[in-house]
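Readers of this paper often ask what the protein records in our data store actually look like. Below, we set out a record of this kind in full and without editing:
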Amino acid sequence: MIRITPYGAAGEVTGSAYMLETDAATVLIDFGMFQGDKDDDARNVVPGAVHRATVNAVLLTHGHLDHAGRLPVLIRDGYRGPIYCTHATRDIAEIILNDAAHIQESDYERKQRRAQRSGRKLSRYDVPLFDHEDVEQALSQMVIIEYGGTLSVATGVQAVFHDAGHLLGSASVELRIQDADRERIVVFSGDVGPQNLPFLHDPEPPRKADVVVLESTYGDRDHRSLEETLREFQQIIVDAIEQNGKIFIPSFAIGRVQQMMFHIAELVRDRRIPAIPIFLDSPMAIRANAVYRKHTELFDTESSQLVEGGQLLHDLRSIRVCVTADESKAINDEQGPFIVIAGSGMCTAGRIMHHIRNSISDPTSHFVIVGYQARGSLGRKLVDGAPGVKIMGEYHNVRAQIHTLGGFSAHAGQTELLDWFGAVAQSGVSSLLLTHGEDRARKPLRDKVQERFGVSAFLPTYSEHCEV
């Protein structure tokens, strides 16, 4: 018996968590945080079925919060088994989880001060989900696994990690499971990257599977070509320069920031834009840059040459790093044109919130959305054309120019997902589960898979058991 149950990312794109059960073992693949609005926050718990199970191992596909964010909650719940991941994923998770703990602890302290002033008590729902001690315990349980190596992770379960091309150290997980008298192969795609993502190798899918759990974030469409996207990005910058305007790029601090810096350097190097000031306003991104420098062995050939030869550093000579809050606030006194790259990518927290509050009503300001925006997030409201938004309790009219550049996505588009699945399914697949996508994305992908491969895909919902 093999049973897979999603406890997140089933009909949505955050909260990735899958419990796989066999007759001999139980393993979790990812245990991510839900992101979006307050209703999503309330779901960041250890589900009862997971709490009651004897989990033998956790396999982490990559370090983004929506895949790793509930691991400290699991630790607080008592889990003391191994968490298998690549070295780069471990280093990235350390940054992201500690930042999440810091944000929760800071929010709690602020709520405590307000409660004391008003003479009321906080509820148990105000307590942080986890703290730095939980994060440190989770990190201590992480066991490094290399790409391509075979490792026994539980009774009757062997794992092989394959480069997913989505983030430094990201992996697709191949599980070789002894089921009765035969071996079955179950593959979890994790987040699959597109072709030619800066710094990363292209995805390397496993070549055989009986069961596949495939992400479907952009299962309904292909992205614009990179060259078209770069031309549009170039024009936005040129227009802003003519207006002496300001360009704000809400960006995920790890992966997307480095990607955007690469492309800005490319435009400068090709003399398509001048070297205007660039403010990297993200302490987390600054720490992430150090992780990238530590793991240059994972870079593709082009990026390795640009870094080793010093060309990338030369192209980004106008960059200014903002570590402290005062350095971030000082940007408000700067005259355009300039570019600000700040977190968070969905505009749900971080320094970008202050920049939105200060500039969203300025018609000469440009906000460039370069990543997926979950339902309920402030970024999603901007993308959907909201005439006004509430930020830190205050309403602001949206008069700034909002641009959405999907071609910079770190997720594969529909055609790339089909090609990835085709490589895995070349020896035949008996079951396909589409996850990590809203229904408007995974239903069209289901139809395309049926049309191209003759495989019927299942669209599981939260906590729905899938016996395969």
